[in-house]
Amino acid sequence: MRATIRDVAREAGVSIATVSRVLRDSTAVRPTTRDRVLAAADELEFVPSALGRQLAERRHAANGIVFPDLSGPYYAEVVLGYESVAAELGRSVLILSTRDRPDAESAVQAMAERCDGLVVLGRTVPDAAVERLVVRGAHVVMVARPPVGGADSVNARNRQGARALTEHLLDLDVRRLVFVGDPSTSPDVAERLRGIQEALPADADLQLHHVDSLDEECGAHVVGDYLTRALPDAFVCANDELALGMLGRLSAAGVDLPGRVKVAGWDDVMAARYAGLTTVRQPMRELGATAARLLDELISGSRSHPTHELLPTQLVVRSTTLGKVAP
Amino acid sequence: MRATIRDVAREAGVSIATVSRVLRDSTAVRPTTRDRVLAAADELEFVPSALGRQLAERRHAANGIVFPDLSGPYYAEVVLGYESVAAELGRSVLILSTRDRPDAESAVQAMAERCDGLVVLGRTVPDAAVERLVVRGAHVVMVARPPVGGADSVNARNRQGARALTEHLLDLDVRRLVFVGDPSTSPDVAERLRGIQEALPADADLQLHHVDSLDEECGAHVVGDYLTRALPDAFVCANDELALGMLGRLSAAGVDLPGRVKVAGWDDVMAARYAGLTTVRQPMRELGATAARLLDELISGSRSHPTHELLPTQLVVRSTTLGKVAP
DNA sequence: CGACGGTTTGTAACCGGTTACACGAGCACC
DNA sequence: GGTGCTCGTGTAACCGGTTACAAACCGTCG
């Protein structure tokens, strides 16, 4: 059995209070006593129990993060940014993927019991579940999702990015475009679609192509649907993976790109750069990092009113949208 | 303040022991008493404190996982497989990325205090640090890394996969090949290189091209180095991302592929399929899932002797290694 | 009717820390 | 020499659960 604070106290001939004081450096302890305690702790290889400490301090020193999935670069990057800041702030990170989990809500509730606050990403649990968390006093930050109840939120400027992208396409004489994605599953995606709609003039035509998932496989499938009928001037995809999947399939089918059709993605994942994909960059890692900071403010109590951060997006034009549409 | 078990006991007019019994369903409680307790718990919206429970049970009901990074599909998939099984087993998952962290070892030690066992992936902390964990009684499973001390391990059959890939290339008359990667940073990569060396006949030529990192950017850089000198017959990359980066740059440079040079990757990430990349598939998610199961056996004490699992790899031939080398 | 055995329930001691409060020692000051 | 202060340390009560053990209760049987 591992040594406890009482063992150390006995070994050093002091009380457990003194041991605790030495180890947390809280109040003055006579140097000779301190040395005795440290020697005893060293001798017994004492490591304080995280559980005992947490219970006494009534804090977990841990944050949670809930995401739908980790396949694909987007969520992974957000989690990475989050973990990195949380670690700096001395907090551990608990993860929870709602992927294939029918009991997502109860899993999130259970997680909330194990941390001081948590971040909820995109389409994971319903708003009502988040509200319940907040009502119960949990500290919650939403990412890539409109704020719920009194929770904080961090979002990218999706509308703005969508407008910039749309204007760029309009400059290339694009008039018939297809949005590939499912606005019903992700609030972020819905925002992007809305931004495009707002920027489009009346004489332009926007179709919505639903997909089941936002991965490369789906992108490739979408192309299949268009090989037998008329291609639009441009495809705008809900994320880069869809777009990359389309690129592969289009080039395999021998479609001239960007001459015959243009393709744009969203996120600016690393692969987009190497594929020459036009996209809207959003600061994925910074989304996670900002969420971690907001959460820390909530937990430490340095702020009580909800905050809603908007991070910039940026149009990145590459070779998949070069040149005007042929008349 | 939230209700505690004592509040519920008072409200129901029973002792805390009875409340605890009702809530954990351990021993027989008279139905009428049970109902009173449940009603009281409901009334007070009682949710048992995870910390109190954990301290009393002396278990965290949480597992850790340590990885170098989360950019790129490989680690993300392993983590996903791990989380999914851990959740099934009723355990939370703590993550720790050693990326850009100078104090990785102490961070891992701290994490070990907060969970019942942990998984250490690839190149993260030195062997000595893992040994210290094991000596201190921590349950440790290594993934993509040779076992250390008494720890369990889960690995893919790297040598076997490398041999299959090499034989495939030899069949195509490849004689001069370049391995792109850094065997010194990752034991997995070193194994792959060794497998190739073992399978190569004496008249073949294998060069090693070091890279700083295993991402697409590095892959693109590598190509730059070869555009001014002779290309080998084939590049074998330590992972798919390197290979994908090379593909993009090679095709931009107008190099005939697979005619002039062949390229192979490793992992079989989703993008590899759409890029037509020949690669060696390893079951990334299953690596994580297996680690979670082994860890559970260690923690539950159902097994005490170390186990070392080897998961299959599989050569996946696609268009980047089609046709024989031109004489 | 009392002994006996099984079922329910309560008491209290944990788990391993933190910390409010009290107490004693040492010192300066009047 | 007594008073009052500061400094260092110990006592004990927490934090919020689980659980060994004992006790109380109830029905049955001799």
TrEMBL record, chains A, B:
InterPro entries given in the database record: HTH_LacI, LacI/GalR-like_sensor, Lambda_DNA-bd_dom_sf, Peripla_BP_I
Keywords in alphabetical order: DNA-binding, Repressor, Transcription, Transcription regulation
Gene Ontology terms for molecular function: DNA-binding transcription factor activity; transcription cis-regulatory region binding
Listed PROSITE patterns: HTH_LACI_1, HTH_LACI_2
Keyword check for DNA-binding: yes
Pfam families according to UniProt: LacI (PF00356), Peripla_BP_3 (PF13377)
UniProt superkingdom: Bacteria
SUPFAM superfamilies according to UniProt: lambda repressor-like DNA-binding domains (SSF47413), Periplasmic binding protein-like I (SSF53822)
The HTH lacI-type domain, residue ranges: 3-57
Source species taxonomy: Bacteria, Bacillati, Actinomycetota, Actinomycetes, Propionibacteriales
Protein name stated in the entry: LacI family DNA-binding transcriptional regulator
Keyword presence, Repressor: yes
